[in-house]
Amino acid sequence: MPDLITVAVAYHSGYGHTARQARAAADGARSVPGVLAELHDVTSLTDELWESLGRAEAIIFGSPTYMGSQSAAFQTFAEASAKVWADMGWRDKVAAGFTNSAGVNGDKLNTLTSMALLAAQHGMTWVTLGLPPGWLYSAQGRDDDLNRLGGFLGAMAQSPSDAGPDTAPSPADLRTAEHLGRRVAQTALRLASGRRALDGALDGAAV
């Protein structure tokens, strides 16, 4: 049986809403046979965190969108990853991202763009959401559609400013994050299988 691969969800959550997104993404990843999912709160920049992310085949980044950008805690994590970048320690890993804000738009795209650029600087392979837009994209759309906020670069969620994490984000937004986690896991599995096949072929050629 092939070795299990690991998808790490590295996130910050200010009030618990983004943490629900993180759990949904992890649930989606672990729903794929052969995949383990780990949750990592990046407010604690420990050696264990860096070691776990280094072992993972895929990292899904998550942050709330505050004032049109990722949170200060997530940015601190991103800047601290410069030590990993110096050795290209995450090169060729799979990456993706998700974010939540109180506004329906909230300039969430800026946060996802920052995450994609972080992944690009690390030499990672970015996985998009891979869903058509839902809800207001068509007259027949519904607010429980997958990708109801119409994002493409990553998974978006919206939590009203006066709603606690027990009620927000919406089930549709959580299912969208779950879809992203599953898509990342499937992509990471395919790449890992391809590498194993290539390594086997090269070993055979060497003989």
Share in helix: 40-55%
Number of distinct helices: 6
Structural category: alpha/beta
Q: What is the N-to-C succession of helices and strands?
A: EHEHEEHHEHEEH
- Cα-based radius of gyration, to the nearest Å: 17 Å
Task: Tell me about the largest β-sheet.
Answer: 7 strands, mixed
* Annotation, overall tally of beta strands: 7
Distance N to C terminus: 24 Å
* Coarse morphology: globular
Beta strand %: 15-25%
Which regions contain 5 or more consecutive residues with pLDDT less than 50?
Answer: none
Secondary-structure topology with pairs:
Elements: E1 5-11, H1 17-30, E2 35-41, H2 47-55, E3 58-66, E4 69-70, H3 72-80, H4 82-86, E5 94-101, H5 108-121, E6 125-126, E7 155-158, H6 171-206
Parallel strand pairs: 1-2, 1-3, 3-5, 5-6, 5-7
Antiparallel strand pairs: 3-4
GO molecular function: FMN binding; NAD(P)H dehydrogenase (quinone) activity
InterPro entries: Flavodoxin/NO_synth, Flavoprotein-like_sf, FMN_Rdtase-like_dom
Domain Flavodoxin-like: 7-185
Structural write-up:
The protein is α/β, with parallel strands linked by helices and 207 residues long. 42% of the residues lie in helices and 19% in strands. The chain is built from six helices and seven strands. The protein has helices spanning 17-30, 47-55, 72-80, 82-86, 108-121, 171-206; strands at residues 5-11, 35-41, 58-66, 69-70, 94-101, 125-126, 155-158. Strands 1, 2, 3, 4, 5, 6 and 7 form a seven-stranded mixed sheet that branches. Strand 5 (94-101), helix 5 and strand 6 form a beta-alpha-beta unit. Helix 1 (17-30) packs across helix 6. It is globular. The model has no long low-confidence stretch (mean pLDDT 95). InterPro entries: Flavodoxin/NO_synth (IPR008254), Flavoprotein-like_sf (IPR029039), FMN_Rdtase-like_dom (IPR005025). Residues 7-185 form the Flavodoxin-like domain. This is FMN reductase. It comes from Planobispora longispora. One of its GO terms (cellular component) is membrane.
